[in-house]
């Protein structure tokens, strides 16, 4: 009989739950190194398979994808996002993705660029005061504000800025709910009036209010914007989307689209600030290609090193560092048994640091993405997932990240203050830097060093 994969035994009854709760990323990393690319984990009553090798990742997301559904862990996401592209299973998902896909095609990107640039210029202007008086900026908060404004502006023509601070709090609390911490409270159904459940409901109501405002706002220009595609889907009479479907898709795009991008943006700026050789090469490229004029969409393909910095950021600090599937039937993966109705965990963080694929995996080295040896094997670089359910917004995110990095590099050099805690770890959320990261802003003279 096919064996189960090897894995830590953990404690009686609890299995590895305490270790996971103490520091999920560190515990899973250790498990990967001790037990290999497919490992079995027991956490309380649940069994998980941790699949980090490229063959196992391909198996789940491409070759035998029919056997894997979103599963139990994605149900947590539904408490916040409702049923949208991210949480739906394939039958329900396919027609929704078909409706929304045109807004994310490469041909749409050039049209989004002016908004990305305008919002980034607002950030650069805000930072002028900090550059003058030497007060540091709160980097993660700034990135969240920018990414939130961009996604709402670009895809819905909606200005969220005046309520950004209030929504940020709701989003932070909601995201915390989406990722299980393995507590008893989480196991209680939503109708039990625990403080956690009351908070979940209150936050969901506030997010739905926001989605309603977006749906009610005057329609933006153009037939292929996400805004008009969603409105058209909702207008299609009997066959059309319900108000709930429309609201859930708006929330899905907003929540899935801005927090992830902001996290990557923050890590790219931190990494560049802390790696003088990378900073020098990046500044040289931006100065040579763009100089003092405005960054244009057409410039992006002439900024390969800037793009490589983003690729490398997404390798070392993938914002979605862990995502799940549930096996529908018993399966054999990479020679090991996976039981029906158990969860499989895919981890960009672990796959991206696999020493069998990546040389010197812990180093921040954008050059690896420019090397002629080309891209790593399929399944070993998955910041946006893989296969049919790959991130719908990946091209939008990449354009935004590359443009923002180029524009900030053109104007400023950042100095990360030593008090900032530059590690991730006890967060089960996305891979945000832990705690606050403060940066001092220095104006560059445009001819090299600041
Ligand atoms: C750096 C930024 C981003 C990262 C790292 C990221 C990561 C991911 C990952 C890993 C998945 C796959 C999850 C799975 O297979 O279970 C995913 C799916 C998704 N992402 Fe992103 N994402 C980013 C930006 C965006 C943006 C900008 C949007 C929207 C504009 C977006 C919307 C979505 C949606 C709707 C899905 C579900 C797609 C589907 O199943 O059809 N994401 N993302």
Automatic annotation (TrEMBL):
Gene3D superfamilies: Cytochrome P450. SUPFAM superfamilies: Cytochrome P450 (SSF48264). Keywords: Heme, Iron, Metal-binding, Monooxygenase, Oxidoreductase. The keyword Metal-binding applies. Heme binds at residue 391. It comes from the Bacteria. GO terms for molecular function: heme binding; iron ion binding; monooxygenase activity; oxidoreductase activity, acting on paired donors, with incorporation or reduction of molecular oxygen. Its cofactor is heme. Pfam families: p450 (PF00067). Belongs to the cytochrome P450 family. PANTHER family: BIFUNCTIONAL ALBAFLAVENONE MONOOXYGENASE_TERPENE SYNTHASE, CYTOCHROME P450 FAMILY 4. This is Cytochrome P450. It comes from Kocuria soli.
């Amino acid at each position: 009989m096919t064996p189960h994969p090897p894995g830590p035994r953990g404690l009686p009854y609890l299995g590895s739950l305490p270790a996971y709760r103490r520091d999920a990323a560190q515990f899973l990393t250790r498990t990967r190194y001790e037990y290999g690319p497919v490992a079995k984990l027991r956490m309380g009553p649940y069994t998980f398979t941790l699949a980090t090798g490229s063959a196992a990742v391909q198996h789940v997301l491409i070759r035998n994808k029919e056997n894997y559904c979103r599963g139990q862990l994605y149900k947590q996401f539904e408490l916040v996002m409702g049923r949208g592209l991210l949480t739906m299973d394939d039958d329900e998902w396919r027609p929704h993705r078909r409706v929304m896909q045109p807004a994310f095609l490469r041909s749409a990107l050039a049209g989004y660029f002016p908004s990305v640039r305008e919002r980034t210029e607002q950030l650069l202007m805000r930072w002028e005061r900090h550059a003058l008086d030497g007060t540091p900026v709160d980097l993660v908060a700034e990135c969240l504000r920018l990414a939130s404004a961009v996604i709402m502006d670009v895809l819905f023509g909606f200005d969220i800025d005046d309520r950004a601070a209030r929504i940020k709090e709701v989003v932070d609390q909601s995201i915390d709910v989406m990722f299980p911490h393995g507590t008893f409270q989480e196991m209680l159904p939503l109708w039990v009036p625990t403080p956690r459940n009351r908070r979940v409901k209150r936050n969901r109501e506030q997010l739905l209010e926001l989605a309603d405002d977006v749906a009610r706002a005057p329609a933006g220009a153009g037939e292929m914007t996400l805004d008009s595609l969603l409105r058209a889907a909702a207008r299609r009479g009997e066959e059309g989307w319900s108000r709930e479907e429309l609201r859930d898709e708006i929330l899905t795009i907003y929540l899935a689209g801005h927090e992830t991008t902001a996290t990557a943006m923050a890590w790219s700026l931190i990494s560049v600030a802390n790696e003088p050789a990378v900073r020098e090469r990046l500044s040289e490229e931006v100065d040579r290609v763009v100089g003092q004029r405005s960054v244009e969409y057409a410039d992006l393909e002439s900024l390969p090193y800037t793009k490589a910095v983003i690729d490398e950021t997404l390798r070392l600090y993938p914002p979605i560092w862990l995502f799940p599937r549930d096996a529908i039937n018993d399966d054999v993966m990479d020679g090991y048994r996976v039981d029906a109705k158990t969860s499989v965990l895919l981890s960009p963080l672990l796959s991206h640091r696999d020493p069998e694929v990546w040389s010197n995996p812990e180093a921040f080295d954008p050059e690896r993405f420019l090397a002629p040896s080309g891209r790593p094997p399929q399944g070993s670089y998955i910041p946006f997932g893989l296969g049919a359910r790959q991130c719908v917004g990946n091209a939008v995110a990449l354009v935004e990240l590359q443009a923002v990095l180029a524009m900030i590099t053109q104007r400023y050099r950042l100095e990360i203050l030593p008090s900032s805690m530059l590690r991730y770890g006890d967060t089960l959320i996305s891979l945000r830097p832990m705690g606050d990261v403060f940066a001092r802003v220095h104006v560059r003279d445009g001819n090299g060093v600041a």
